[in-house]
Amino acid sequence: MNNIYLCTPGPTPIPERVQDEMSKPILHHRSVEFQEIFAKVRRMINQMVHNDGETLLLSCSGSGGMEASVASLLQQGDHVVIVESGKFGQRWVELARRYELKADVIKVPWGEAVNPQSIAEKLTSSTKAVLTQACETSTGVYHPIEKIGGLLQSHKDCLFFVDAITALGIHHIDMPKMHIDVLIGGSQKALMCPPGVSTVCLSQRAIDRIKVSQSMYLSLEKELKTQRKDVAAFTPAITIIRGLRVALEMLEEEGFENVYRRHADLSRRVRAVFRKAGFPLFNEDAEAAHGITVVGPNLSWDVDTWLTTCKKQYGLWMAGGQEHLKGKIFRYAHMGHSHQESVDFTLDLLFTSLQSYIDVPSFESLIGE
Ligand SMILES: Cc1ncc(COP(=O)(O)O)c(C=O)c1O
Q1: I need a labelling partner for 105 at 20 to 30 A (CA). Which of 123, 240, 250, 280 fits?
Q2: Which segments of the chain have a pLDDT < 50?
């Protein structure tokens, strides 16, 4: 196969060092050798987000982590407040419906961040949880997590669930400072691994609230009990967890603050280039997530056909819009193993490919001066 330049918002490119680790002979999951790796990954993720509780590794995609959290921490009839600002907010809403929660849904126009005040207005003394994304990947927005967490401080019974699947390893997340109780990640985003592991970080407050899950497989109670002995309740994604150890070591070597700065710098650079080319950006600068740049709407060319051309002719993979945004926006991701050189290379391809569709400047001329 020709080269693939993966600029989709997950999976993302996997560093060679991680690939090499994952190509080693498989270990048995109940061996001391694997248990050490398992414990280290749990510890490293927990430290990365300054958690005072514990982190669990579930062998499922990110949505499995979301469902396990709802199934293990909430029960039928619980009042919850959900931020729905795109495709992934809808996932919280669907989970609430399936688990028969009493949900107050705050619908935010796609592309915009939620106003924390609208959450405050829905909170009651019996609200059991607020559920949101940190980054809503379908629109590229980053919600004001710290401000929302601040609001919840006086609501002692209300847990704060944050889907940080495209924020973990990109934005600095400090669970205690942001009053986050449940933080969900996925291996295939900025953790630079294949899909298959969801990380679920639980504050001590959340741990104290865990109940027996309605789900046999997605049970945080069962996982907590066994993972404290460094084994998962079921056969875990051994190979990916080995990859995660190396990926996390790479982030640690770079320094987490440098990793977050790198993503912020990439976001600024990419936005400046698109802006200079005269393209509309879908998010305000202050609300833009750092791992993805969303361009549109009102683009003057056939976006979906162009995305297929990019893939077939240039090996450049990006994502289009979903639902009503289909054909109206494109999403260019720069999360995880992404650096100025890789971004410049793929942006150059992007602008070259566009020349057959519209009159655009070359990438070189956009970064010149
Ligand atoms: C913010 C967000 N939440 C949830 C998901 C779903 O994760 P998965 O596809 O790993 O189940 C994604 C996937 O892109 C996401 O970006």
Answers
A1: 280
A2: none
